[in-house]
């Protein structure tokens, strides 16, 4: 969806709030029917990225950033300037999730920078166009689609030519308001990324077509209908089975069904005492347990913290789903949301 904005005056600021997402699994990592990946994902209402940008005389990048993130923003700006014309920005990152933990921080940061840039220079551009320019969405479109609309999302996998389009949106369900997500984070680890991720993917055996068919069946006939009808049991059971199946496939690359044995231990303890859909987002190490109510979430959090009592590197928090996309605010306009609907 094009971001149609007039140019702001110099020194007028634009603030972007980009939501985090959970990647809940691929449908077919091996393209057994000719099209690879296909992703299920959920946008959440915490662990997002917020940045402020303005036109300035000298480029400036500061805030809650690592040096690697600072360099990534500078590269994004260089690509945006090459594509849309010279413009100098000062960018302040107020907060962002820790990189490489499975929350989609790289895509959200890139899209936030790209959206701020085109907002300030008044150039129309879609999120998919920005993602392609900035090198995002090579396997999953969940981060791009979540930036636009939020919710529980299913994409159809990339075409193989990112210059043409991002992975298409196949289905979007609002995430039920009552359901909650327990996040279990391991601060001692990072998920696979970069060259290490590419090597890991290349090392995997072909994904059996029968398993791809099984995952598609789980998503289309249990997980999505469960969310649509707010029927928690088939949703949770289907999601746990999907995660177990895809986790076993990636186990040789990440050291187990879960990248963090401690995260797995905590989540198994949670699931042993209540109905929950458990798994790992992307390469982890962050894991999740989706439960049916705020009351169940409070109980799950207590169980998780007890299981992690001797693990100071494990953090357990409760979040909700988010059924809206990124938010843009500027000094010249009221807040507006990017929504697919």
Automatic annotation (TrEMBL):
Listed name of the protein: Beta-ribofuranosylaminobenzene 5'-phosphate synthase
Record bears the keyword Kinase: yes
A GO molecular-function descriptor: kinase activity
SUPFAM superfamilies per record: Ribosomal protein S5 domain 2-like
PANTHER family: BETA-RIBOFURANOSYLPHENOL 5'-PHOSPHATE SYNTHASE, HOMOSERINE/4-DIPHOSPHOCYTIDYL-2-C-METHYL-D-ERYTHRITOL KINASE
Domain GHMP kinase C-terminal per the UniProt entry, residue ranges: 224-306
Xref: InterPro entries: GHMP_kinase_C_dom, GHMP_kinase_N_dom, RFAP_synthase, Ribosomal_Su5_D2-typ_SF, Ribsml_uS5_D2-typ_fold_subgr
UniProt keyword terms in alphabetical order: Kinase, Transferase
Domain GHMP kinase N-terminal, residue spans: 76-141
Organism of provenance: Paraburkholderia panacisoli
Gene3D superfamilies hit by this protein: 3.30.230.10
């Amino acid at each position: 969806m094009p971001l149609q904005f007039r140019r702001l005056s110099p020194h007028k600021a634009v603030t972007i709030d980009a939501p985090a997402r959970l990647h809940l699994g691929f449908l077919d990592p091996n393209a057994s029917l000719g099209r690879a990946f296909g992703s299920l994902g959920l946008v959440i209402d915490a662990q997002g990225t917020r940045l402020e940008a303005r036109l300035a005389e000298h480029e400036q990048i500061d805030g809650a950033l690592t040096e690697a993130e600072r360099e990534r923003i500078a590269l994004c700006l260089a690509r945006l300037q090459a594509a849309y014309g010279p413009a100098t920005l000062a960018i302040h990152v107020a907060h962002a999730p820790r990189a490489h933990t499975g929350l989609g921080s790289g895509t959200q940061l890139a899209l936030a920078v790209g959206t701020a840039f085109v907002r300030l220079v008044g150039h129309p551009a879609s999120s998919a166009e920005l993602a392609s320019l900035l090198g995002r969405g090579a396997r999953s479109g969940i981060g791009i689609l979540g930036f636009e609309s939020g919710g529980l999302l299913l994409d159809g996998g990339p075409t193989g030519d990112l210059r043409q389009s991002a992975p298409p949106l196949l289905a979007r369900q609002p995430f039920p308001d009552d359901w909650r997500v327990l996040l279990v984070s391991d601060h001692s680890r990072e998920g696979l990324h970069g060259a290490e991720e590419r090597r890991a993917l290349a090392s995997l055996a072909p994904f059996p077509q029968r398993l791809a068919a099984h995952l598609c069946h789980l998503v289309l006939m249990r997980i999505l209908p469960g969310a649509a009808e707010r029927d928690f049991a088939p949703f949770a059971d289907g999601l746990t089975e999907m995660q177990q199946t895809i986790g076993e496939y990636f186990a040789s690359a990440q050291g187990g069904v879960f990248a963090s044995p401690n995260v797995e231990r905590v989540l198994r303890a949670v699931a042993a005492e209540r109905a929950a859909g458990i798994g790992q987002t992307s390469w982890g190490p962050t894991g999740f347990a989706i439960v049916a109510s705020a009351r169940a979430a409070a109980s799950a959090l207590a169980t998780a913290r007890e299981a992690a009592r001797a693990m100071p590197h494990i953090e357990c928090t409760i979040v909700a789903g988010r059924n809206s996309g990124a938010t843009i605010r500027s000094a010249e306009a009221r807040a507006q949301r990017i929504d697919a609907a």
